[in-house]
């Protein structure tokens, strides 16, 4: 297992590489190039510049989150083959730079949806939350709320792209779940030979939330969805980013069984490990709490043990953290609470590992 930390780049992140390098047990960053539009090639010189910047701090750049999949590919428009060829070239460039895993998603229009970016907890910290009653029926209203609240560009909610929100909804008007599945398989079958040549694994992120929002199709929400994808494109370079929070946002998902199954099948390349706390206000309502098991509804020890005992040897990052100790920044991506999460997860991993050694 390698512990990593998501970093948006010098121009887009208040957290510095110097700070990341000081977190015990972190071997690398999960990087990105925020300014390159989906569908365009990541130039080799930009990739190498990012790699050099990261390595200058003694860290590795082996995971990218994300090379966004453009709407032409997801919706299956006439321009998708050009965009796929650009994606293939990006994979070649990343592989040549030593990148091993690319996290991506296949959610139309929005990469994630929350009702609150600064849900206040009793201790005074703030966090991301989803309360179904607070999600407006018109996505334009939610977009305006995000734009008013956010001081940083939110990944998956890029202002230039979402300025065409009505057009995007029209683009997906005839795309149901079956069509979206077909478009995903078309994309993966086209890029798998390149991934295999470049040594890059594509790791899909589950839907967030794991059900339809605003009438948009969702196809990566359940155990059966993940199983379908692994069988539809059986290459080992087609893998999963197991986001504990996203899977657990649907309480009928058996998170621990899903981890055990897909880790034992060797299909989890990357794990986002976090806790959520279910709210009594509705069956889908929750907030993102501290990583500590006792703070929320998930058992982080069971998560870590399920990964460890079933042969997981990929990358982990602490997922969204609260804003604590007066910190401000991109919602979910402050320094302090995620650093606490790193320490907690690493401690659990060490304990589970040593317990396994003692039992053997």
Describe this structure in words.
With 360 residues, this protein is of the alpha/beta class. It has a single domain, classed as TIM Barrel, CATH 3.20.20. The chain has 13 helices and 12 strands. α4 packs parallel to α8, α11 packs parallel to α12 and α12 crosses α13. The mean pLDDT is 94.
Total beta strand runs:
12
Question: Tell me, what's the shape?
Answer: globular
CATH homolog superfamily: Divalent-metal-dependent TIM barrel enzymes
- The largest beta-sheet arranges its strands as 1-2-3-4-7-8-9-12
CATH topology name, in short, is: TIM Barrel
User: What characterizes the major β-sheet?
Assistant: 8 strands, parallel, barrel
Mean pLDDT: 94
Helical content band: 25-40%
* CATH architecture identity: Alpha-Beta Barrel
Topology as H/E string? EHEHEHHEEEHHHHEHEHHEEEHEH
Query: From the alpha-carbon coordinates, what is the Rg to the nearest angstrom?
Result: 19 Å
Task: Compute the number of helices.
Answer: 13
Low-pLDDT regions = none
The portion of residues forming beta strands comes to 15-25%
Distance between the termini: 20 Å
Domains (count): 1
């Amino acid at each position: 297992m390698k512990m990593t930390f998501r970093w948006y780049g010098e121009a887009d992140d208040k957290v510095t590489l110097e700070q990341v390098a000081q977190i015990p047990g972190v071997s690398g960053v999960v990087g990105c190039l925020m300014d390159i539009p989906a569908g365009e090639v990541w130039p080799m010189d930009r990739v190498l510049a990012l790699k050099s910047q990261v390595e200058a701090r003694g860290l590795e750049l082996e995971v990218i989150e994300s090379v966004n999949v453009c709407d032409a590919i997801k919706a299956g428009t006439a321009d998708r083959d050009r965009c796929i060829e650009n994606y293939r070239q990006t994979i070649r460039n990343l592989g040549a730079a030593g990148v091993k895993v690319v996290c991506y998603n296949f959610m139309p229009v929005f990469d994630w949806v929350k009702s609150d970016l600064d849900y206040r907890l009793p201790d005074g910290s703030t966090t991301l939350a989803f309360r179904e009653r607070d999600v407006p029926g018109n996505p334009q209203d939610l977009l305006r709320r995000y734009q008013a609240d956010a001081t940083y560009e939110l990944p998956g909610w890029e202002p230039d792209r979402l300025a065409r929100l009505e057009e995007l909804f029209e683009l997906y008007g005839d795309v149901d779940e079956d069509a979206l599945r077909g478009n995903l398989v078309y994309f993966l079958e086209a890029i798998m030979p390149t991934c295999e040549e470049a040594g890059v694994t594509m790791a899909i992120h589950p839907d967030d939330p794991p059900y339809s929002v605003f009438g948009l199709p969702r196809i990566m929400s359940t155990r059966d969805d993940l199983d379908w994808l692994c069988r539809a494109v059986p290459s080992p370079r087609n893998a999963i980013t197991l986001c504990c929070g996203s899977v657990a946002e649907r309480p009928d998902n058996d998170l621990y069984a899903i981890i055990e199954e897909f880790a034992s099948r060797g299909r989890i390349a990357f794990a986002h490990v976090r806790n959520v706390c279910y709210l009594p206000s509705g069956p889908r309502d929750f907030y993102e709490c501290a990583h500590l098991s006792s703070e929320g509804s998930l058992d982080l020890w069971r998560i870590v043990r399920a990964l460890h005992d079933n042969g997981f040897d990929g990358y982990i990052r602490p997922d969204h953290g609260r804003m604590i100790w007066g910190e401000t920044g991109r919602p979910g991506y402050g320094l302090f609470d995620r650093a606490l999460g790193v320490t907690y997860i690493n401690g659990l991993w060490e304990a589970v590992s040593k317990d396994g050694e003692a039992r053997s």
